[in-house]
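hey m, so remember when u said the tokens were messed up on ur end? i reran from scratch. heres the input so u can diff it against urs
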Amino acid sequence: MPDPTRVNADQLAFWNGVGGRTWVERQDHTDRVLEPVTRKLLSFAAPRPGERVLDVGCGCGASTLEVARAVGPSGRVRALDISVPMLAEAAARAEARGLAHIDWLEADAATAELDEYDLLVSNCGLMFFGDPVPAFVNLHRAAAPGARMVFVCWRGLDENPWIGVPMQAVLPHIPPRPKGDPRAPGMFAFAEPDHVTEFLTEAGWKQPRLERLDVTFDIAAGGGIDEALTQLTKIGAINSWLRDQPEETHAAAVASMREALTPYVQGQSVLLSGAMWMVASQA
């Protein structure tokens, strides 16, 4: 496993540098792609009026704003992230919508001193801890008696053609990728249900319930295949693979992705399936 301290430092640098700024620039596209997941998460978590909610890894606030509407002004939402640019964007969006009962907190959930909460939610924001056990211990420490935790995470790459198809198209154009630890911090770190159950119960949470969530994503967000290709090369794993490659390599990779994605084009959409876990537990 990678060194947890190094992982956390790398995450902090990325999300407060070009990575965080690019995600802010691309947030509208990302929100539209992930809207079905956000909707399902809200339904699964069922936040109640008046509840105190902790949103971990809130990013630019798409889920946070919906949670805030659900708990109403009698409730309170504390939205936590390590990315200053993304938190600033989220706060601006909340102000524009008149949602004043959200506190935006720049902090690492693994170590932050947290206020007591009734519900913890996270939309794909928990898979990046250097070591999940102490992180979830810290989250458990602030939970009110009987507090609920609900989060969404990705199942395995082989079940997610929306990213697997373009990844396979890029691989021939770049140096061989080292085979990593499937449980290492990253997008697919929580793909194995047994692993999720193991670290959550070790951290003090009750036996979790995992439900499959299968979604069809429009990775173009209605903008056509060129928009899908722009998104894939701006944020995420493919962006990191191509970031330091020469221009001709980048162009060849994009051409291969275009060819691979063409069968999935329907009008201005590019439709591929995705697979996630919806995880629920209690303190």
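this time it looks ok to me. The beta strands are 52-56, 76-81, 102-106, 117-123, 143-154, 209-218, 265-266, 269-282. if urs says something different then somethings off w ur setup not the seq
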